[in-house]
Hints:
By secondary structure, the chain is an alpha/beta fold. 32% of the residues lie in helices and 19% in strands. It comes from Elysia marginata.
Amino acid sequence: MRKEQALGKQRALVSEESLRGWFQVAERDFVAEGINIHAATPDQVFNCDETGFPFMTKMGYVLAAKEDRQVYGVTSDNKHQIKVLACGSAAGKMLPPAIIYPGQRLGFDPEAQFPGCKHYKTANGWIDTPTYKNWLQDIFIPATRHLRKPAFLFTDGHTSHVNEKVYFLSKDAGIAYYTLPAHASHILQPLDLVFFKAIKAE
């Protein structure tokens, strides 16, 4: 027997037919731009995605007296979280992650705690269009400048990712930018399926 995984109604409606249709449309869109996706090498194809890590720690198992029906652990009342934006290629190369913090002031030095990462702040810790544009300019474009163009970047359809500013910035940098189908990240989002899943299992 295997344990069921919770799946929202919208995700449950995703079918093989709809996914095949997305691949066909994507190929037509690339052809219309004069791009041959089949000529791309694994080091040219990237996926980016973000996930949240709550400040409130998870509760674990503890030893308790048999008669204790409830066992409590004290944790933070803070419901905020930080977001981590990761990006990797089909060849297995991971770019430096970006960490997005809520608020404008931090009580620690992020550069000292997480060297090699890029740090951003937004009002609520969620990614927005200016932050995503900065990530493209600070991390993705410089990291892919040496590659044969175009470099392909597949991402979800979050509003911060899908707008004219991001599209033209990507196009000017030789990046073929394309969004994955809605409600299908549990099937097609490599970072969700492997990278973040492994981290959150710790």
